Amino acid sequence: MSQSDRGLRRLAAGTLLVAFQGTTAPDWVLRELDNGLGGVTLFGFNVASPDQVRSLTTALRASAEPVISLDEEGGDVTRLDYHVGSPYPGNAALGAVDDVDLTRRVYAAIGSELAACGINLDLAPSADVNTEDDNPVIGTRSFGADPALVARHTVAAVAGLQSVNVAACVKHFPGHGATRVDSHLAVPVVDVGLDVLRARELAPFRAAIEAGAKTVMTAHVAVPVVTGDTPATLSAAALTGLLRGELGYDGVVITDALDMHAITKSVGLANGAVLTLAAGSDLICLGPIPGEDDVQRVIAEIVAAVAEGRLPAARLEEAADRVSALRSWFGTPEVVAAGQNGVGLHAARRAVRLTGETEPLVEPLVIEVDTPPTIAVGNVPWGVGPWLPDAEIIRVEPAAADVPALLAKAANRSLVIVVKDAHRYQESQELVSALVAARQDATVIEMGLPVWRPDSAAYIATYGAARANAQAAVELIIA
User: Fold this and answer.
1) What are the chain's domains?
2) Of 348, 397, 408, 315, which is closest to residue 96 (Cα–Cα)?
3) Catalytic residue of the set 256, 259, 282, 421
4) Is 184 a catalytic residue?
5) pLDDT digits (tens, 9 = 90+) for 343-395
6) Distance between CA atoms of 352 and 468, rounded to whole angstroms?
7) What is the DSSP string of 324-345?
8) pTM for the predicted model, two decimal places
9) Residue 3 pLDDT more than 60?
10) Which candidate in 153, 172, 176, 184 is catalytic?
11) Which residues belong to any copy of the Glycoside hydrolase family 3 N-terminal domain (predicted)?
12) Sign of CA dihedral 282, 263, 424, 397
């Protein structure tokens, strides 16, 4: 391979954020980092403990200064606390409180934990304006449905993270909040005019850019008025025209995970990498599925695209310059003391809402109504079990629940029913309604968005299913 070919391959590799299985870095990842790989994205399967993550990131930095990223949104989406649930309540709860200083402090605490583990880029916050109640992928990840509220809290989140030298990644541009399709599975569409798009979806991104957000993440969402049928991730009109041109953004543009079906089932992984670079992306998050062979194919396809004239070499050089500037902003990694989790519980307590009156608990039976996890969240534990150690807890599939048997078991005992996004699941609503009809003294805890509630019963809204949300809810019924 000639020197020029090696240089081109290094530029191609420099656009990639790869993932890998396990809690230690594979040899191929370390080798590719030596050869210019942009960096890595960590997931829950890479995390065992803060000390282990710090050892992992130290190994990744042995011969390079890579971008080391993960999704740490607080609330439902967590990687550092994937196995136990987050100590921070998440965006919907922060939006319900609507205290921008609190949001800034929560994100500064999250950032300090990441920095202490050697992570320099947080793929957060979500700046999506969640105007669609049945949104299957955003929901409690959004600060709310009001663009001005989402904008001011997005700015606060960016300020909090970047105050501890962890780069924020404002997502999912140009907005995933008005969709009813999960882009992990297909291409969602936001079919609105430019006036609505500018006033609603783009308002938080415009505010975050003005506030100095270091990175912006694309969405695999089609916006016909801008992109036609093409997902924004692959659209020059969205990334170069709208984001770079109209909004004036000159930071690093990162793709959402390219292994999602919105890309792989339409244009393919390697071709998608070329198309998004041509459209204006600088770093490609490949997602958790692609392995070493896939990474090699993606690099080879980018190199071939330059050789064949499908991708200008100048586009790779521009991306490299932006990523280099981001690395310079990171500075020299230092051992940072992690922030205290107390601010997370404080925020969750301020967010939780009780309607009606609860009775003192007597041999409580807790029925947790099972809810399928989204792909973005994964199998993060949720529920009130850790905070009610003396309660009997039953998790039931709503379609298979035996209501008479459950009511018999709850006889002469306190009944607590825990649900998550009941408004999205008719079977959950029917089960809760049947239980409450017989037990109007029950307490219902909603750990998703509080859109639907039964006609009677005390009702607690947590605005999220994180560990902190659960503790705050239980404190209301044992006080």
Assistant:
1) 3-330 (3.20.20.300), 352-478 (3.40.50)
2) 348
3) 256
4) yes
5) 999 999 999 999 999 988 999 999 999 998 887 888 889 999 899 989 999 99
6) 10
7) HHHHHHH-S----PPPPTHHHH
8) 0.95
9) no
10) 184
11) 34-325
12) negative
